[in-house]
Amino acid sequence: MIQHNPVMRICIACKKTFDRKNLLKITKDHKKGITFQNGMGRSAYICTSKECHSDSKIKKKLQKALKTNLEPEFIDIFEKEIASYNYYPDKGI
Ligand SMILES: [Zn+2]
């Protein structure tokens, strides 16, 4: 019997370990620049908890994790992207 061990990664905000499938991956791709969920290069992971997305230091943590300065345009995309990962059943979205 083959056992598939999930690939575990650490959320840059809460430092907890999660199955990679449940994390939002942000990659600094050599060619494409910053990408979400795909791309090759240095990657950072953020879990789906609202606390981590609304962490006031999340951008600094991302910059540190990716070893790059994030453009304001990226921050906009990032904020929209993480918002789409939040699911609020009580709001009926
Ligand atoms: Zn987290």
Please provide a brief summary of the model.
The protein has helices at residues 50-53, 58-66, 72-85; strands at 8-10, 17-19, 24-29, 33-36, 41-46.
Describe it for me?
The structure is a single chain. With 93 residues, this protein is an alpha+beta fold. The protein has a single domain, classed as 2-Layer Sandwich (Hypothetical Cytosolic Protein, Chain: A). Helix content is 29%, strand content 24%. It has three helices and five strands. The strands form two sheets. It has a three-stranded antiparallel beta sheet with strand order 4-3-5, with helices on one face. Strands 1-2 form a two-stranded antiparallel sheet. The mean pLDDT is 85. Bound molecules: zinc ion.
Count of DSSP E strands?
5
Bound compounds, each kind once, are: zinc ion
Number of helices: 3
CATH superfamily: YlxR-like
Which features does this protein show?
binds zinc ion; alpha+beta; Hypothetical Cytosolic Protein, Chain: A; 5 strands; 3 helices; 3-stranded antiparallel β-sheet; 93 residues
Annotate the secondary structure layout.
Elements: E1 8-10, E2 17-19, E3 24-29, E4 33-36, E5 41-46, H1 50-53, H2 58-66, H3 72-85
Antiparallel strand pairs: 1-2, 3-4, 3-5
The structure holds zinc ion.
Zinc ion binds at residues 11, 13-14, 16, 47, 49, 52.
